[in-house]
Amino acid sequence: MCDAEILGKTFREGKITFCVKEDFYRGRRVAVEEAFDLIEASTIVNMVGKNVVKKAIERGFVHPEAVLNIEGVPHAQIVKI
Fold first, then answer.
1. Cβ atoms 17, 73 nearer than 8 A
2. Is the distance from CB of 1 to CB of 47 less than 8 angstroms?
3. Does the first or last residue of the chain, that is N or C, have fewer Cβ atoms within 10 Å of its Cβ?
């Protein structure tokens, strides 16, 4: 999942190039509450954007130290085993 305003953009920092590709991130647009219902039901989550990552931290899905910032844009992953 990603914040809508960064869909299709590319961010660079050092050797990292991160593309928020539409073919990966584009899907149906949902409200934050529904997005977090989907996280509950998922085993792997890939998220990028200030809003979605901030909300995931606030709800305890992501530890703040596990967030990678690329050109100031936070990226986090969740893997449930």
1. no
2. yes
3. C
Q: What is the pLDDT along the chain (81 residues), one digit of tens a residue?
A: 999 999 999 999 999 999 999 999 888 888 888 888 988 889 999 999 999 999 999 999 999 999 999 999 999 999 998
Count of helices and strands (H, E) across the chain? 3, 5
Longest alpha-carbon distance in the chain: 34
Reported in sequence order, the residue ranges of 1-81 that DSSP labels E, i.e. its strands, are 10-13, 16-19, 44-48, 68-70, 73-79
Buried b / exposed e along 27-57 (16+ C-beta atoms within 10 A): eeeeeeeebbeebeeeeebebbbeebbebbb
Q: How far apart are CA 81 and CA 76, in angstroms?
A: 16
